[in-house]
Write a structure and sequence with these properties.
The complex is a heterodimer of chains A (88) and B (370). Chain A is α+β, with helices and mostly antiparallel strands and 88 residues long. Helix content of chain A is 24%, strand content 35%. Chain A contains one helix and five strands, in the order E-E-E-E-E-H. Chain A has one helix at residues 60-80; strands spanning 5-13, 21-26, 29-34, 46-50, 53-57. Chain A has a five-stranded antiparallel sheet, with no helix packed on it. The N and C termini of chain A lie far apart (58 Å). By secondary structure, chain B is of the alpha/beta class. Chain B folds into two domains: 5-59 and 181-189 and 204-245, 3-Layer(aba) Sandwich (Rossmann fold); 64-170 and 255-300, 3-Layer(aba) Sandwich (Rossmann fold), CATH 3.40.50.11740. Chain B is 38% helix and 18% strand. In chain B, strands 4-3-5-6-11-10 form a six-stranded mixed sheet, sandwiched between helices. In chain B, strand 10 and strand 11 (278-287) form a beta hairpin. In chain B, helix 1 runs parallel beside helix 12 (222-238), helix 2 runs parallel beside helix 16 and helix 8 crosses helix 13 (257-266). The chains are: A alpha+beta (88), B alpha/beta (370). Chains A and B meet through strand 1, strand 4, strand 5 and helix 1 of A and helix 1, helix 7, helix 8, helix 10 and helix 13 of B.
Amino acid sequence: MCLAVPGKILEINGEDPYFRTGRVSFGGIIKQVSLACVPEARVDDYVLVHVGMALSVVDEKEAAEVFTYLKAMGELEELATPPPAASS
Amino acid sequence: MKLVDEFRDATAARKLAAAIARRVTRPWILMEICGGQTHSIVKFGLDELLPPKITLVHGPGCPVCVTPVELIDAAVALAARPGVTVCSFGDMLRVPGTGVDLLTARARGGDVRMVYSPLDAVTFAAQNPGREVVFFAVGFETTAPANAMAVVQARRLGLRNFSLLVSHVLVPPAIEAILSAPDNRVQGFLAAGHVCTVMGTAEYGPLAARFHVPIVVTGFEPVDILQGVLACVEQLEAGRAEVENAYARAVRPEGNVHAQRVMREVFEVVDRNWRGIGRIPRSGFALRAEFADFDAARRFGVAGDAPPESTECISGLIMRGVKKPHECPAFGTRCTPEHPLGAPMVSSEGACSAYYRYRLRKPAPAAANV
């Protein structure tokens, strides 16, 4: 129920802030979405959309951080793992 | 899809699961309160990927499931009235009330329509001025901005034929009710990511401090959920009880202030009945008096008293994390998604329904299906 899907804004329409909408692409499927709660959203931004309403602009830097963290964790793991014993 | 697929990466998920296994020294019980997260956990087998010391229990995170029977009965009664169109999210249509569900009401000639968004129901009302259009507004904080915006838009358009049947519930009072119960066994929470996208994280600080539980804001994909579990386990092992954000790409500490403003304008906090749990003080939203014209319950005089619930269903114990779905004697036999005895079996996001769908017909898988 609370699922929200990230989509990319292709176009923004509407003067009245309560009726501001965007054409948003979800992996190629395009829907009209209310942007009334994300006045900061611009074309090419990714927004999280729930029941036809954008709830936030996705922070792509933070999204990338997760994988930087995982990569660092992998490298630390390798450091922590003793090298395999030489075969006799 | 960008920003989705990478968070389902199996290697990343296994790496996180291994990190969790390295940190755990004692048994811990964690709860998520979000049907979407419950569904992800069971579907991808994330609970089975975790070390046996970690138990995930599933809270009352499915708003469809906890919508009280009397409101479903009210929606069914409205659908039977001539000139009324009831609009609803699709997952609400199959949830039985005392008698029938909304799909059956439609089969009997009622005008029931599934909509993707409450804003679509406003458009439908504008295009059909001769019909009374009622939107069945269920949901947590995540859905409240769209439902509130529907009312604001309807007023700005001058519509007199649009109203909401409101069944809105809030997450923090549910956490408080669970932690206050004498038989509580939950030691840490994964807070629902999109609820916090709207509300921010400030409400959770007092709960973490008062009950000394870590609360980690968590997303929905496998990598997100495992990251949330890891952060929660690290806090528990270190004896910390803080609010932490493991879903920073979607959640700012202050939440979405624009969404909060429109919610405050339209709704006020009230006591609410939760199906399967009972009354929780100040745990939901109702329309403010200024928007009484848009309140379907007042306009049509529906919404009666709560009927008694099945005595065999142990949903209260399941949604408070005291029992798991398969520990119920009725699970999968007398209680199925087709004939649910109680709340967590009624919608696909309910814990019992998720276990029925993914766990009943197969042996426990050895590895995660990520």
